[in-house]
């Protein structure tokens, strides 16, 4: 057993609902949207030209807008702060994973 770690307490506070509650209480960085579509901006240089690519995700679940905060990396993979150790090739897969990880934040469905 690691010194100073209470594994019973860790099991209690490490649930997805507890993490979601903790993250929701944190201060958001200046300019970080709290609702509405999620935007991801990437830039690159190619043969002397500057490229700016803005990807916008407008996520709606059961008719309710959801701020999923999806981000696209330089290699085209998606990530979401709510699932920091996951990467996705599909925005739909990312939203499905968020719904599975945080079911209490989504109403309706089966």
Q: What can you see in these coordinates?
A:
It is a single chain. With 110 residues, this protein is an alpha+beta fold. The chain has helices at 7-13, 16-25, 91-101, and strands at residues 38-46, 49-57, 59-61, 64-66, 71-72, 78-80, 83-88. The strands form 3 sheets. A 3-stranded antiparallel beta sheet has the order 5-6-7, with helices on one face. Strand 5 (71-72) and strand 6 form a beta hairpin.
In short:
This protein has 110 residues and is of the alpha+beta class.
In terms of structural class, how would the helical and strand content be classed? alpha+beta
In N-to-C order, the SSE pattern is HHEEEEEEEH
Largest sheet: 3 strands, antiparallel
How confident overall, as mean pLDDT? Answer: 81
Tags for this entry?
110 residues, alpha+beta, 3-stranded antiparallel β-sheet, two-stranded antiparallel ribbon, 3 helices, 7 strands, 25% helix, extended
Topology readout:
Blueprint: H1 7-13, H2 16-25, E1 38-46, E2 49-57, E3 59-61, E4 64-66, E5 71-72, E6 78-80, E7 83-88, H3 91-101
Antiparallel strand pairs: 1-2, 3-4, 5-6, 6-7
């Amino acid at each position: 057993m690691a010194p100073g770690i209470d594994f019973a307490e860790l099991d209690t506070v490490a649930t997805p609902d507890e993490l979601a509650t903790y993250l929701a209480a944190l201060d958001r960085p200046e300019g970080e949207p709290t609702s509405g579509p999620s935007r991801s901006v990437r830039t690159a240089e190619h043969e002397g030209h500057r490229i700016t690519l803005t990807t916008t995700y407008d996520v709606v679940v059961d008719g309710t807008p959801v701020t999923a905060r999806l981000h696209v990396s330089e290699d085209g993979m998606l990530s979401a702060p709510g699932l920091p150790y996951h990467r996705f090739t599909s925005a739909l897969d990312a939203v499905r994973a968020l719904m599975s990880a945080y079911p209490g934040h989504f109403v309706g469905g089966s």
